[in-house]
Specification:
alpha/beta, Alkaline Phosphatase, subunit A, four-stranded mixed β-sheet, 15 helices
């Protein structure tokens, strides 16, 4: 959700420009400021950032992105295995493989139903005793490399529109699998149909995010709170599994712009008020995806959806319950429209306490968060501050 000033928005960020009456009303009664979620020297990924927001120091607990996703889909991993993210991406068609360009890291946010058919086709031709493919969600899938190595691999969303040659795997087997995946997928009936409908084809695998089996400590042991995770994204579900939290699956939640926002809000409130949980983590992927797509209009829409279709519902229902509560609102990392990928800049946070009587003029956005003078350099310490 965090971004940079954009000329077409009159020099405002999408968060400043969006109509967010709920977040602004909360900000006027809250502590706001900037939080650094990405430790110095680490890549600004959703993996490191969300670990930090969840209260886990990435420098201590991070072993790679894909292993966390593997946890969420129940992939069996041995200590010597390496997990890799397997994106279904859209590449240009005319050039030799190493001269193609990445058009879309998500294949038009392909449905899991279509992706399942494509992954099954890949499994038939690419799997062997050393490599096993596992279906995830939408474009996000998993490759387990038995006895593999944690090799350096480029994230596709970092190199949109660029020639892929310099970013292809150096490992010969992984490179050969990516090339062969294009041969399999580019002529698959699902992709021929997608092309005919003007949709982005899922015409190649892209391996990245390699890592080994993670070992997170229990969230409940760390913070003495029972927690739930509400997300459509395997990475977040995997962090929850590793942390011993319950994953709540919301029907219609898909990680895209048109997700079931209201269902997520209601699930969180029910967990807190009816099911005896102390903490709910609601993750909304849409602002990040719209940043990757480079769409100012849709990013603004995603932020407005978050404000009215998630935060407003949670606030109204918690107020109606009479329970005292705290509410923390923040992005995990910026995904600026200008670069269409993640950056390491600090993010604005809003911390509301229903018992607080404070009142001031703040609104919730990057500029006012900076003006507040509140700056927290250690992102993983924010959870303890919230729950103290």
């Amino acid at each position: 959700m965090a971004d940079e000033p954009i000329e077409s928005l009159g020099g405002k960020t999408p968060l400043e420009y969006a109509r967010t009456p709920e977040m602004d009303a909360l900000a006027a009664k809250s502590e706001i400021g900037l939080l650094h979620t990405i430790p110095e020297g680490m890549s600004p990924g959703s993996d490191t950032a969300n670990l930090a927001v969840m209260g886990y120091d990435p420098k201590r607990y991070y072993t790679g992105r894909s292993p966390l996703e593997a946890l969420s889909i129940g992939v069996p991993m041995e200590a010597e295995d390496v997990a890799l993210r397997c994106n279904l991406v859209t590449l240009t068609e005319e050039e030799p493989y190493d001269q193609k360009r990445i058009l879309d890291h998500s294949s038009g946010e392909i449905s899991t139903k279509d992706a399942a058919v494509l992954v099954e086709a890949l499994k038939k031709e690419l799997e062997n005793e050393e490599y096993k493919l596992y279906l995830g969600t939408s474009y996000r899938h998993c490759l387990i490399w038995k006895g593999g190595q944690v090799v350096s691999l480029a994230a596709p969303h970092d190199h949109l529109t660029e020639v892929i040659g310099p970013y292809l795997p150096e490992d010969e087997k992984l490179l050969e699998m990516q090339k062969k995946s294009y041969e399999i997928l580019s002529k698959h009936p699902i992709n021929l149909e997608r092309k005919a409908r003007g949709l982005n084809q899922a015409n190649s695998c892209w391996f990245w995010g390699a890592g080994t089996k993670p070992a997170l400590t229990s969230f409940e042991q760390n913070y003495h709170k029972k927690g739930v995770m509400i997300s459509a994204v395997d990475l977040l579900k995997g962090i929850a599994v590793g942390a011993g939290m319950k994953n709540i699956i919301v029907e219609g939640a898909n990680g895209g712009l048109h997700t079931n926002y209201e269902g997520k809000a209601r699930a969180a409130v029910d967990a807190l008020l009816k099911d005896g949980y102390d903490f709910a983590y609601i993750h909304v992927e849409a602002p990040d995806e719209m940043g990757h797509q480079g769409s100012v209009e849709r990013k603004v829409q995603a932020i407005e959806n978050l404000d009215q279709r998630v935060i407003r519902i949670v606030r109204e229902q918690m107020d109606a319950s009479g329970e005292e509560y705290r509410l923390l609102v923040l992005p995990d990392h910026p995904t600026p429209i200008r670069v269409r990928t993640h950056t390491s800049d600090p993010v604005p946070y809003l911390l509301y306490d229903s018992t607080s009587q404070q009142s001031h003029h703040w609104k919730y956005n990057e500029r006012e968060a900076k003006t507040s003078g509140n700056y927290r350099p250690q992102g993983h310490e924010m959870m303890r501050y919230l729950l103290r």
